[in-house]
Amino acid sequence: MNNFTTYSLNLPGGRLVTIDRPWVMGIINATPDSFHAPSRALEPHDVEQRVAEMVAAGVDVIDIGACSTRPGSTPPPPAEELARLRVALPAARRAAAATPISVDTYRSDVARAAVLDLGADIINDIGGGTLDNRMFDTIAALRVPYVLNHTRGTPATMQSMTDYGTDGVVAAVTEWLMRRSDDLRQRGVCDIIADPGFGFAKQPSQCYQLMAALGDMTAALDMPVMVGISRKAMVKSITGDTLTGTTVLNTLALAAGVHIIRVHDVPQALIARDIVHATRCATPPLNKIHSFAATVAHDMPPGAATVHRNLQNPQ
């Protein structure tokens, strides 16, 4: 199990929050066409009820999206996206007065209005600044935490852009996140959350390559890491039981040291988070394990010590 690095985020209003254990981010889709229908909530009452349920369960942050970005989707006009947020955000805030609220948008004008007019705390940009060239400067001006998501193309074209050449998807995504985050820092953005972009311009097999390398990626990136794998195609490529599949993958991601898991199903994600966190806190330091093993080997008879070493280092 990988180590967990603590980070702090500066939220609007001078609030400082600390990610000292992994966060669970609950998804609210204020859209009629998001791929997971149960996550959709268009009416104020529905939004408020779903957010209240998440808060009661113990969610750490809410993420509200008003523009579907599933592969092949057609986005609504910016005015319609913002109109949906004007309904959803106040309803969410009524149920989550103290819980950070993120807005999932790749449009800088929507991001600005969400923060300044509607009280959003975080901007979650699936385009990583590539779908709106004003986004980075907007985030720098707003001074809010920013989720930098890796993707290519647009939601309509991204699944035709999955060739990562000889370097492969892991190296390409890691390099992209480092380069784009450096650009943000040069503009004065301090609070950056990296998202490898599972399912965005990636085939399921490439998503599993990212999952296998997630521990190394998290250690290499000097920022919190978020993953959004909930009920996506990479899960469906293995099993039709997408809830169980998602929970297994979230558990692997948490063990790899990620800081935020973005999910449709908050109670199951919280269980995975709490179990991984309890295990990590209970794990003795590696040097003590090695010291104990060396002491046991020293106290054994010569033949038994040989067997002990062979068991420790099987050929």
List the main descriptive attributes of the protein structure presented here.
two-stranded antiparallel sheet; TIM Barrel; globular; 46% helix; 315 residues; alpha/beta
Summarize the structure.
The chain is 46% helix and 14% strand. It has twelve helices and ten strands.
What portion of residues belong to β-strands? 5-15%
Oligomer type: single chain
What would you give as the CATH superfamily of the largest domain?
Dihydropteroate synthase-like
CATH architecture of the largest domain: Alpha-Beta Barrel
The helix-strand sequence is: EEEHEHEHEHEHEHHEHHEHHH
Largest sheet: 8 strands, parallel
Considering DSSP H and I runs of 4 or more, what fraction of the residues is helical? 40-55%
Rounded to the nearest angstrom, the distance between the terminal CA atoms is 23 Å
How many strands appear in the DSSP assignment? 10
- Total discrete domains: 2
Helix run count: 12
What is the highest CATH level, the class of the largest domain?
A: Alpha Beta
Radius of gyration: 21 Å
Mean pLDDT: 90
